């Protein structure tokens, strides 16, 4: 007997109130409350698990700063020349190069195997970092870490985008990244606690930071291998998580929203066909500029605070409040964007926070005001990471185009990581004026890019309303999100 879903019986839901092409309708066999329970089940199983795994991902790639001021700089002679900058940036070339194939691999072998396996292996690499004898060996392990982590973030972004409609993504991406911010917030405090193990097993405190955090990574990798699920159109994703009927409903819901719920068979031609679309590269530039600022903060905030005459312990612990504030700003941005179907103005607002905060950090003489400026920059830069991800996800269609766009976006984010590791040069300490100016240029460039894209999207939406063009190959009313 045909189900109500197969008969395409629908009722109106909250996502259709402002846009006829927003998210589709809920099948009549599900009440609104039942629908929300299904989505919240997906949130708990998918967003929470990838978010927890992202915690250790972000912590493991950025814990150099807390280890550095905990004695690593002296033991490995990182305080001479460009050694510290080299160790931070060598992570990114392999991280960038390996991005694009990762979104193909995760579709082929599934997120559970792909993400779980690479997380466990990079946890082992982290443990190895605790036993290095010189900085070139540490740099080599960072190169390997880049290969492994390259497969994580773009795969998570791609996986999340396949489970949710366009105006459900903002809060989910924000919550996913908020968990990463929590890791950043408490990594300094965690590192300070781990440092107290100094002398146990004959290891320095900074070495125990890598060993303990590597063990945590392996545990979460095993948890991910056990709990992660695949794509909604994959018959192997149920596992007691959703019924087959509920999963088919999710696929239908996404199909109504953007008509790309099921991936076509992979071909290299189809995968790279999105490359000539210039807006993909503008999305990537938005992410590059954003991550330049956020990585600069991640790698140098404890160093900047230490240069403000705070002790090592206080410098590590003071990294927590700005990231917690960033988490609140991030979730509010996601909620606001989903509710009012906007992304660009939120990106501009966050960049304005950076443009206010950076001069305060660089030029104000008061440590209290400098710390206030750090709050603003941290909130603006980090809140824009999920907002830019959602902005690009809302304005493209097609599974393989989505996969290509996720890979290029995060790949350019890796370029931002290279820039972020270099903009604050040791010879510019303690004020790092050149780095502040570079970050301000990135924030200003993002505002210009949003202006260009907004003009294009408004023009094309109006043309589509008049029937002059079809946006993203969709004949069912797809419109760009401003």
Automatic annotation (TrEMBL):
The chain crosses the membrane at residues 46-70, 82-106, 113-132, 138-161, 173-194, 206-228, 280-301, 313-334, 346-365, 371-391, 403-426, 432-453. One of its GO terms (cellular component) is membrane. One of its GO terms (molecular function) is transmembrane transporter activity. It comes from the Eukaryota. It is a multi-pass membrane protein. It is found in: Membrane. Keywords: Membrane, Transmembrane, Transmembrane helix, Transport. PROSITE patterns: MFS (PS50850). Its main location: membrane. SUPFAM superfamilies: MFS general substrate transporter. Pfam families: MFS_1. Residues 46-463 form the Major facilitator superfamily (MFS) profile domain. InterPro entries: MFS, MFS_dom, MFS_trans_sf. This is MFS general substrate transporter. It comes from Tothia fuscella. The lineage of its organism: Eukaryota, Fungi, Dikarya, Ascomycota, Pezizomycotina.
